[in-house]
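pasting for the record
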Amino acid sequence: MNEKLMWFNPDIQFLFHANIVEYDMKAMSVSISERYNLLDKSIIEKLKRMPKEQRTREVGLIQKDNKEFSQRLIQCELETRRKFLETNGLDESNVVSLHSDACIFDSKKRIVNNIEGVEFKHANTWTSYMRFKGIEMFYDGETLEYKGVAKELLNQHTLGIHKYLCDIFNKIENYDDTIIDYITRFQMKYLQDRLPDYYYISFGRVGDYKMSNLELFSFIANVVMKEIGGK
């Protein structure tokens, strides 16, 4: 799983009533460059003094001009991430996904966050998770966050699909036995065009108006049946 910058666990498409945490490398490009001596010390010190956005742009320019540095940076980043996972006993049984310098996993144990001088900082904690076609959804009991979809696309779903997804997460987390009736009524209204227009906009990706969301609703129904239907 550690050979790729981005990896989704094929065996974990959803998790509820869990302790899902995200750790990412602090100032990855600088930390890795310093740990593995990838850049001159003077350049590293200069990068350290820069604001994050400026530092990101500067490292991007260095990578563009120096392909060897770019390749070594990625290799050393993956190696440090692997050491973090191994040190903390994290594998396919509990790692949800990997995003370049970030690790998302389900664990309640204490985490060793300093790997040979490279610090992994705690970024988020969530209680539930679903993944649909590369779009990850994270819920903390109140707020639903996404990875893998542009914010400008999410804005058009605030009153529609986003609200529906929040209701689904909330009902599952609270063992609400009305959820099956809820999704049945919702999908019936959807198919009968009885919902506001914003519900019919394709979720997360460009797709056919109304029809492209049916696959998402089918996925949600399967999750609900597996998580609550059999209990």
